[in-house]
Amino acid sequence: MSWKIWSLKKSPWVFHVNTGACNNCDIEIVNLLTPKFDVERFGIKLVGSPRHADALLVTGVVTRQAAPRLQEVYRQTSKPCVVFAIGACACDKGIFHNGYHVVGPVDKIIKEIDPNAIIAYVPGCPPKPEAMISGVVKALSTL
Amino acid sequence: MNQIELKNKLSEIKDKLDAIEQKAENRIYLTCKAENACAVNRFLLEDIGARFCVATGIDADDCFEIIYHYSYDQTGCCINIKAVISDREKPAIESITPFLPAAEWAEREIHDILGIDFKNHPNLRRLILADDWPEGVYPMRKEIKATNT
Amino acid sequence: MKKIVKKPVIAVGPFHPLQEEMEFFQLTVDGEIVTDIDMRLSYNHRGIEKISESLQFDQVPFLISRICGICSASHPLAYVQAAEEIADIKPPERALYVRTIINELERIHSHILWVGLAGHFIGYDTVFMWAWKYREPVLDLLEEITGNRNNYGNVKIGGCREDIPNEIKPRILKELDEIEKKMDMLTKAVLDDPVLHARLKGVGILSKADAIKYAVVGPTARGSGVDIDVRRDDPYAVYSDLDWNVITQPEGDVFAKAVVRLLETFESIKMVRQALKKLPDGPVTIEVKEIPPGEAVGHVEAPRGETFHYVRSDGGNRPVRHKVRAPSYVNVPSFKASCIGEKIADVTITLAAVDPCYSCTERVAAVDSRSNVIHDYENLLRLSREKTEKIKEGKK
Fold first, then answer.
1. Averaged over B81-89, what is the pLDDT?
2. How many domains are contained in chain C?
3. Residue C16 · residue C360 · CB < 8 Å
4. What fold does the segment set B3-88 form as a domain?
5. Rounded to a whole number, what is the distance in Å from the CA of C42 to chain B's nearest CA?
6. pTM metric for this prediction
7. Of A132, B5, C101, C349, which has the fewest Cβ atoms less than 10 A away?
8. Dist CA A35 CA A40 (whole Å)
9. Which chain A residues touch B if contact means CB-CB below 8 Å?
10. Can you tell me the distance from the alpha carbon of A121 to that of A90, in angstroms, rounded to the nearest whole number?
């Protein structure tokens, strides 16, 4: 294991991207930082810039306007970068599958610019905070 | 003003309206022609003092309808003004934004999704559709179906 | 030769969904003072109104509870009330009580969430951690009743999907006592804090005249002295049977809005208690055969203000038009009145004050074209937090 992967697994820094979500998944992500779940004890930290991030937490259906912005954010991250599709919308567009303004899901948009991207799926509407922690742990253990 | 006084007050603009309907205790529907919509809106806003909620644009097959929703909070009455635009080729109606800034977004949204032109609107730019959305495609019109892509 | 003066513009966004829609703000500034603000939506536009036309009447509530994760009880309730008006359905008494209880629990957790995030934005993370810790028991209660922490999907045409079992009533009452105690402490701590006074009072003032001009709703309006509340003005569910007060504050600044929200939490706790005590026996749902042709509007007081739905039916099993207006749709344009003349450091909290769904405010990018300094969201937050620090120093 290279030192880079080792450090990534030790303390992944995540950046949170909303691409047209209903805020539910987003609130649950913020919830992870608060006393009940407190993921910072495991070294997981929410950062304010994609350039600092080891992982992207992507929520939402990816609307037409947000898709190019999501790709831009992905380009700015340092590689390897794990993309987490959080919630039913991000995984497969969910209930919004036939919306005229929806171009997702997340994996399709990310793979347009990087076919080898590592994508992890956390389904649920919204996924429980426990499910998100479990998803992060599982994805990191495959690296 | 109580409910009865409100109804009496509404009959003052009878000549501008095609119909006054009361569908439930607290729900009044007024119908008018597109050219009178501005005057009726102004009356509701200035003489009655109702609060503007939102405007709905509807593609009703042979015509377009714009429904201005107001709420008169003293009695909790919802007053809806239905303006009918019969021209399907070049639908247009006078904007109410110049005297009601709260309507700016509602009108821009209807312009985006139905292609109705609001005359004298100060800022009729694209609001809710994407930058690369093609010009002249209006998603809420009936000919566009919700598709499984 | 005349010198061309270019106005510096600060772009906030686009990954900055302050509410249901993601938005892009452009702040025109003169030095530190904001002189104009422009907004662009579309980032979060999912075309829900069109999708709604492709669903059946009883499927729509599950779609529209996903308009906004925090108002996921209010939107379906407004829609269901409109549909019930078209079909002339009277839901059973117990269902109305259950709807009231779910809606008020939602308001409690939403207001606590706002207090926490407001603290976070001005660099007061203690408030953030406290508030979100006290919010968890409310989510647990909602999960126990409806089966999900958010997106309850509990309202349906003709009643409710899930009942509140009588066995858990004492547990809810006990939890409410706990929440009230903690909120009492939090409220006192927040409202008596000299730093918060210095930081929030007189900031982002929305005058009563502007509030009426922009037709704002909910705590934003009540914080500016406009006395409106759908729960009182056009009572639905069982609000007319409960004893509660509408909280208003005349000042119109961010602090007034915080006071309104904090005090409303106590009113909501009071209402849930009364509703639980009065909860009648009986079924929570009745059978609905069809929705006849017709049109109706339904409005509900969501945590952020009035949620407005218009539904039209042609007698088929799908709505022909379903219009949704979320409260932030009218509250956000009022930034034009409240942000102009403010300092950049105060903009974050002023934008936050109308309580747009800003769980996602983590990504703001700002460009100052005069100095070519690229501010990102962190930079804006830093400016905001430095100001708080300075005030703290001064108070010592």
1. 89
2. 1
3. yes
4. Beta Polymerase; domain 2 (3.30.460)
5. 4
6. 0.89
7. B5
8. 10
9. 63-65, 97-102
10. 8
